[in-house]
Amino acid sequence: MKTVFVGMSGGVDSSVSALLLKEQGYNVIGVYMKNWSKDLPGMKCPWAEDLADAKRVAVKLGIDFEVWDFEEAYKEKVVEYMLREFRAGNTPNPDIMCNQEIKFKLFYEKAMERGADYIATGHYARVVAGVQDDLRVLASQSRSGARRSLPSPWGSRATPQFANFRTPLRRDSDATRKESSILRQKDNTDYLLARAVDENKDQTYFLYRISEEALAHTIFPIGEMTKPEVKKLAEKKGLHNAYKKESMGVCFVGEVGMKDFLKGYIDIRPGEIREIESEKVLGYHEGVIFYTIGQRHGLYLTGIAGEVNDGLPYYVVKKDIDNNIVYVSKNLNNEYIWAKRLELKDIVLRAQGLAPPSRSGARPSGLSPQADGATPRFANLRTPLRRDSDATRANMGDILVRLRHRAPLIPAKMVLGENGTATLEFENEVKRPAAGQSAVVYDGEICLGGGIIQ
Amino acid sequence: MIYLDHAAATPVSAKVLKAMEPYFSRDFFNPSAAYLPAKKVASEYEAAKDIIAHAIGAKAADLVITGGATEANNLAFTVLDDQVRVLASPSRSRVRPSGLSPQTDGATPRFANLRTPLRRDSDTTHTVVLYLETEHDSVRAVAKKHNGTAIRVLPNGLIDLDDLRAKITDETMLVSVSLANNELGTIQPMAEISTILKNIKIDRLRRGIKRPLYLHSDASQALNLLDINVSRLGVDVLTLNAAKVYGPKGVGALYVGHDVKLTPITVGGGQEKGLRSGTENVPGVAGFATAMKEAKEHLNSNRKKYRHLKQILLTELDGYELINKKHSLDSFVVLCYPGIDAERLIYLLEEKEVYVATGAACAASKGQGSHVLAAIGLSDAEINGSLRLTLGETNDEKQIHATARIINEVVKAERQRMLARG
Question: Is the CB of residue B1 less than 8 Å away from at least one CB of chain A?
Answer without folding.
Answer: no
